[in-house]
């Protein structure tokens, strides 16, 4: 762990530097004191030391006055430092001329004129000394050599004493310096240690400052959080108070409801018994409804078979606004009853037969149902809805519109966009989805698939696929008579809107051209195929019903003005002629029925002679100019109405068989 001691305020480097400065100042003082000794004293000291060194063999002892050696006649004289020189009156001996004393005045000058030396005597005493020196010089002139020698010896002893004192002081200072150097070394080691500890402490201080900064930031964050939490706490307390009030009201409600619960539990037990009884009765009723549904379907099928498996409806279209403006003549059409129609020309002339023989003026035809020009699309679909019901039950149903160009086939089958004028195909789709909900109540779930194709110039074209492909009609299996078309686009339908969209695309892609009979004439046979696959999970049953809605091309003779449409008209008439041949073969009950002579009869083979309920919607024009074409269409429809097929079976099987 890093130490958290406070950083020292006083650094050791300063102490060391002050010690070094003190040592240097002491050494400088010693040097200055040595420099302040007068030159005469130093010279005398040097001479004295040299003379003593030459005469005496032992060293000078410290703190003892020096011994002066005089001449043999003179005795040794020792003087103290403080003793003043006494004037002596010498005897008056005349030896001739007196010699002048050899005094060097430079000594005093040297002492007084030293620039760097410090004065040993103060200003007050300086004047006195100068006077004494002058007096002494005057007296020295009078002295003899001995007196001068004694004076110099006194001075020398005083200088020696002074030098000894200085040496003792110097030694003491040396010892002090040594002790200080030793203490300096120890202090340096301590200083190094203190520097290391100082570095450690600085690092610790830096880390602590970073930690403090982070802690300060964290503290600020915590303070902001605290403020938010306090606000939240206030809000929560307010909410808590509200909930406490609510709890009080709810507690009263709980007590009330507890009493209600006891009563409701008693009622529940009674109702459980009632529900058990109802579930038992419901199961029994479901079994009964299933049986009754089966019986209803079988009865419905029997009624349809009694009406005929190939049925023909005749519809007379009304005159268009354009035809009323042009005042075109109408045929004489009489509706004898719901199943019989009578027709003749407007001028009453006889109609000629194909053999050239003259026939009666009025010709009568009977069908399963005849609709006048006043009949609406809804009236026709009421009869057609029974067949759609059969398709949901698992039967194959085929509805095709026949008639000349401009007789109203496309209008009957497709109609217009409004609900009142929409045709059989949109109405069947709506009816399928309506009946589907009722079948779901009985336990049936339906999957609906649709495809659209046309037969144009004996070629099958997919109306939902823009890419050209080859399509062939093939058998599903070798036993049955069900057919399918190869490479045909089949779409799964989940709502009526989806089927309407695909129907619109099919109408846009269908081959249409303008002729003299009709501005927008269908030049191909359009086939709408709807497959209904129903599954009953509880009864483990599956039913498959196919619904074919066919809008045939216009049946008419080729006119000289329409040479451009020669190939189209030839192929249309050829396919319709083959359809007539197939119906004649069925009427005569021939062994070979020519279904494969055209693509149309080959595709309608299961509907005409196989396991299918077929409805032919004959559309005729009321105009007098179309009388011959109307007669041909009525004759062809009467032949179709006389055809009879065997009993029809619905395709219903068990789910276990399908899985195997």
Automatic annotation (TrEMBL):
Domain of life: Eukaryota
Compartmental location: Cytoplasm, Cytoskeleton
InterPro entries named among the record's database cross-references: Kinesin-like_fam (IPR027640), Kinesin_motor_dom (IPR001752), Kinesin_motor_dom_sf (IPR036961), P-loop_NTPase (IPR027417)
Keyword NADP annotated: no
Classification via PROSITE patterns: KINESIN_MOTOR_2
Keywords: ATP-binding, Coiled coil, Cytoplasm, Cytoskeleton, Microtubule, Motor protein, Nucleotide-binding
Pfam families membership: Kinesin (PF00225)
Residues passing through the membrane, by range: none
Gene3D superfamilies noted in UniProt: Kinesin motor domain (3.40.850.10)
Segments forming domain Kinesin motor: 309-643
Signal peptide per UniProt: none
Keyword Cytoplasm: yes
Coiled coil stretches, renumbered: 149-288
Residues that bind ATP: 403-410
Record-stated family: Belongs to the TRAFAC class myosin-kinesin ATPase superfamily. Kinesin family.
Protein name in UniProt: Protein claret segregational
Naturally occurring in which organism (per UniProt): Camponotus floridanus (Florida carpenter ant)
């Amino acid at each position: 762990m890093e130490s958290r001691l406070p950083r020292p305020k006083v650094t050791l480097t300063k102490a060391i530097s002050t010690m070094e400065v003190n040592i240097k100042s002491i050494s400088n003082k010693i040097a200055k004191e040595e420099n302040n000794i007068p030159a005469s004293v130093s010279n005398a000291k040097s001479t004295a030391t040299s003379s003593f060194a030459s005469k005496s063999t032992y060293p000078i002892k410290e703190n003892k006055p020096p011994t002066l050696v005089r001449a043999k006649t003179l005795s040794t004289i020792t003087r103290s430092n403080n003793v003043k020189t006494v004037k002596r009156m010498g005897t008056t001996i005349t030896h001739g001329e007196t010699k002048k004393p050899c005094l060097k005045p430079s000594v005093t000058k040297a002492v007084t004129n030293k620039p760097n030396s410090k004065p040993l005597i103060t200003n007050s005493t300086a004047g006195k000394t100068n006077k004494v020196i002058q007096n002494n010089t005057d007296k020295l002139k009078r002295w003899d050599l001995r007196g001068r020698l004694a004076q110099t010896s006194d001075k020398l002893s005083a200088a020696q004493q002074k030098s000894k004192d200085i040496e003792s002081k110097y030694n003491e200072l040396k010892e002090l310096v040594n002790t200080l150097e030793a203490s300096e070394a120890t202090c340096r080691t301590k200083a190094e240690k203190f520097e290391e500890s100082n570095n450690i402490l600085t690092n610790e201080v830096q880390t602590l400052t970073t930690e403090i900064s982070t802690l300060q930031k964290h503290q600020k964050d915590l303070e902001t959080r605290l403020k938010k939490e306090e606000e939240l706490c206030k809000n929560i307390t307010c909410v808590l108070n509200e909930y406490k009030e609510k709890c009080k009201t709810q507690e009263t409600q709980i007590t009330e409801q507890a009493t209600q619960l006891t009563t409701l539990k008693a009622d529940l037990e009674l109702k459980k018994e009632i529900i058990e009884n109802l579930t038992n009765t419901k199961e029994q009723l479901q079994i009964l409804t299933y049986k009754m549904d089966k019986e209803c379907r079988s009865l419905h099928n029997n009624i349809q078979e009694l009406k005929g498996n190939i049925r023909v409806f005749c519809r007379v279209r009304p005159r268009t606004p354009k035809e009323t403006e042009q005042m075109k003549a109408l045929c004489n059409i009489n509706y004898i009853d719901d199943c019989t129609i009578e027709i003749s020309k407007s001028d009453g002339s006889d109609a000629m037969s194909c053999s050239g023989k003259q026939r009666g003026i009025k010709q009568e035809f009977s069908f399963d149902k005849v609709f006048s020009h006043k009949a609406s699309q809804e009236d026709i679909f009421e009869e057609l809805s029974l067949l759609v019901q059969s398709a949901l039950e698992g039967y194959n149903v085929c509805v095709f519109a026949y008639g000349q160009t401009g007789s109203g086939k496309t209008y009957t089958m497709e109609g217009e966009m409004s609900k009142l004028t929409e045709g059989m195909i949109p109405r069947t789709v709506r009816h399928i989805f309506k009946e589907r909900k009722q079948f779901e109540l009985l336990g049936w779930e339906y999957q609906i698939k649709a495809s659209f194709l046309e037969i144009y110039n004996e070629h099958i074209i997919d109306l939902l696929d823009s890419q050209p492909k080859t399509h062939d009609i093939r058998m599903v299996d070798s036993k049955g008579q069900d057919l399918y078309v190869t490479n045909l686009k089949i779409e799964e339908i989940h709502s009526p809107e989806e089927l309407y969209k695909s129907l619109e695309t099919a109408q846009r892609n269908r081959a249409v051209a303008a002729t003299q009979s009709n501005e927008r004439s269908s030049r191909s046979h359009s086939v709408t195929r709807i497959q209904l696959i129903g599954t009953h999970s509880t009864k483990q049953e599956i039913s498959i019903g196919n619904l074919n809605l066919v809008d045939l091309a216009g049946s008419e003779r080729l006119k000289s003005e329409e040479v451009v449409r020669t190939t189209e008209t030839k192929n249309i008439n050829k396919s319709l002629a083959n359809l007539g041949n197939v119906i004649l073969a069925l009427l005569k009950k021939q062994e070979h029925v020519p279904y494969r002579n055209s693509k149309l009869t080959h595709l309608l083979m299961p509907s005409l002679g196989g396991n299918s309920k077929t409805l032919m919607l004959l559309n005729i024009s009321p105009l007098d100019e179309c009388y011959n074409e109307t007669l041909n269409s009525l004759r062809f429809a009467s032949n179709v109405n006389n055809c009879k097929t065997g009993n029809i079976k619905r395709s219903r099987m068990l789910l276990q068989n399908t899985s195997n």
